[in-house]
Amino acid sequence: MEVIKRREDETRSRLGMCSVCRVNKAKYTCPACSIKSCSLSCVKAHKQCEGCSGVRNRAALVLKDDMDNLTLLSDYRLLEEIDHKLEDNLRHPLRRHVMRSLKDKPSLPHFLHRLRNEAWNRGTTLKFMPSHFASRRENTSRFNFKEGIIRWHIKWIFHQADVTFTDTSVDENTPIIKLLTKYLEPNNDLSQDDNEKLAYYQSASYGKVAVLMKTDVPGSGTTFQELFMSKSIRLNLANKMVMEYPVLYVVLKHHMDAYLEYQPEGHDDLFSDPEVKEATEMQKVTGLSFFDASNDMEDG
Q: Mean of the per-residue pLDDT values for the chain?
C-alpha cells in the first residue's frame, strides 16, 4: 500500500495542478488533448467546456524522440484494424460490388451481353442490377440464338387484386392480350384462391382493362406507360427502358389515371422497387454508377 501511495504522489507531483479547478493536484491526463485533471467531475467539465471527446487521435503525429513501446504497439494495432476492415469490405455482399474505378466495373456474362445487344437492336434499352440483387438472380430473360428471338421474364401485378404472377420464357412476338387470357378468364391452371382474387378483373371485359409498364429510373423515380394489348411484347418494349425484365401492371381503366398522373417526389413513392431505392442510395453515397450502361455496346 505504501508503494502504491508513493507512486500516486509521484504522479501527482509530475502532472502538477489540475488544469480545470486549479485547486487539487492532477491525477489524470486527457488522451485527446493532454489536459490535466484531478477527478471525474473535472474530467466531465473539461469535455463539456472544450468539446473534447477524450479519445486519443491514433493517427496524430508523434515525434521520434517521444515514441516508446506503447506507441509502436498502438500503431501496429491500428494497422491490423485497417487490414481487417478492408477484408470485411471485400466480403460484404453490398460493398464488394462498389466500383472504385471504371476498370473495376464488373463484367456481364456473355449471355447477358448478347441479350442486351439484341434488345438494343429492337429499340429496347435493357439495364441490369448488380448480381447480388434478387431481381437479377430471378431474371430468366434470354436470347435464343436458334430461334432468333428474345424470351422474356415478365412479372404481372394485379394491383386491385393484390396478387402477382410471373411468366418465364415468353416469346417476344406474343401479343399481350394472349398472355392475359389465362388470368382474365377462369381456368384450372390457377389455384382457386388466385381465381377468387382475380374475379374482380375476370368480371370485366377486355376493353375495360389496361396494361401499364412500370419503369424505375434511379434519380427520376417511377413512371407508368400504357401498352397496346393487341401488339406484341417486342413492339411494346420498343423505345422503352427495361430494368432486368418488364414489370406490367394490370389495372381497370377507371383507375388508370391514378397511375399515369402519378408523379413521385424523390424516391418515397409507393410503387418503387426497394432494390432500386437501395441501389440509388448506394449511388448517392459513393458517387458511382451501379447499372450497366445499355448504350455502351463496344464491350458486347
A: 76
